[in-house]
Amino acid sequence: MAYDWIKALHVMAVISWMAGLFYLPRLMVYHCEAAPGSVQSETFKIMERRLLKAIMNPAMIVTWLAGLYLVWAGGWYVAPWMHAKFALVLAMSAFHGRCVGWVRDFAEDRNTKAGRYFRIANEVPTLLMIGIVILVIVKPF
């Protein structure tokens, strides 16, 4: 019974985390267009910081904790597809860490990247998610 509740919590946390990973780089696309120090730029800084601290960080932590429990309780740690999924989730976490750095750069008016960079970066979590979902649902190996 606990396993199903933890799985539900895990799915909710993943959805929240992914929403943030999809939205934050999109905010940065528009933030690039705002002049540093402008009201618009300062508003983006607040939005980015709140998204990261209030949604993305807690969601990532819950995703990891619940996911590790599910792997352990379900005995999935021996499954080859889980090893591949784990690698992709590590990559997703690294992307999250990169987002933290971008938020810091914008907060200190040190961003040197163009909007196009963030448009391309915005595709990374989508590609990782596709791989993760295929591994979890199809379990190809």
Q: What is the overall silhouette?
A: elongated
Overall radius of gyration: 17 Å
Low-confidence stretches: none
The portion of residues forming beta strands comes to: under 5%
Q: What value does the average pLDDT take?
A: 98
Write a concise synopsis of the structure shown.
Helix content is 83%, strand content 0%. It has 5 helices and no strands. It is elongated, with a radius of gyration of 17 Å.
Structure description:
- 83% of the residues lie in helices and 0% in strands.
- With 141 residues, the chain is mainly α.
- It has one domain (2-138).
- Helix 1 (2-32) runs antiparallel to helix 2 (39-74), helix 1 runs antiparallel to helix 4 and helix 2 runs antiparallel to helix 3 (80-107).
- It is elongated, with a radius of gyration of 17 Å.
- The two termini are 27 Å apart.
- 21% of the residues are buried.
Explain the layout of strands and helices.
Elements: H1 2-32, H2 39-74, H3 80-107, H4 115-121, H5 124-138
Helix pairs in contact: 1-2, 1-3, 1-4, 2-3, 3-5
Key terms:
mainly alpha, 83% helix, 141 residues, single chain, elongated
